[in-house]
């Protein structure tokens, strides 16, 4: 052993420790261990006794085999071989049908990211990207809620979310929701919440992430709508345009979102109204639009009934988030929630499929934040607001580690 080796090893150890501290933030290690334990238990339970894939997953697996170099017929054959599906040739219908295919082939991010894992592990490699995404979602939400609220509230709400049916199924299984929500959480972490400053670096990063969200699951408009509502809410509250911290996010992400939507529609033209008319057995578009409120109500009732059977934890998060709209009308999280809820409602009714509110999944990170906000509102006595702030910062930061005040959660 040379004299320089111990010093080198010590330097590596210090770098690893520094990196670990940055990842953990000011969250105690025992909290991360508890969340990791819940995550492992939930993951093992769902992948042992649940079903972490559906018919959608077959298409994504076949697309990944295609990206790995196989032609369509061979990719479908390999998919059927992995899933032991003798009727796998039906995938040709989805890939070739002019109504359905525009919903499938633009979702390129998940299959593209899965290529190296599938080349190494076969079809099982399709679980790697959702697994990494699910872990990032937990880490990101925990860090963000710790910035906005207290560590204990962040821990409690995150723990409940980990054990929900929606999280275990759609964020650990072979679905596009996992990477799409991971990118969404990354964007939320950079938005001007809890004193966070949104600069040029954040604008560039969020633009790239928004493109990834759109081409993961066409859910970019939900996030853009939420940001626009936050900007408008802040403008109405402050009545000073130049001091609005949401100016740059809107100025950058709204055009990026619109550009992504236009590119998507040019590349994969999809007539959502034609689908809405077809799936609801309506005679024409005008009649379908007139009946939309009734269709929406029936769909919402059916989805809510499924919640009582499948996902009481998420039903509780929903209730807390909706109550927070009334209890915390001055919170920017309320604006984010309303701004993401309205397009999610529209997407849900246009798809008209009973799915336990699956089409609301793009807004779930905001839903969790709003629910945590209500818990903080009820359990933590807020300090007096400072001049220029709309709502006070939570008193959960140690001395010397305060962040600059802005419009907070």
From TrEMBL:
Source taxonomy: Bacteria, Bacillati, Actinomycetota, Actinomycetes, Micromonosporales
Protein name in UniProt: Uncharacterized protein
Transmembrane stretches, start-end: 31-49, 117-141, 148-168, 221-236, 248-268, 307-326, 333-353, 359-379
Keywords: Membrane, Transmembrane, Transmembrane helix
Region (Disordered): 385-409
Highest taxon, organism lineage: Bacteria
Species per Swiss-Prot/TrEMBL record: Actinoplanes aureus
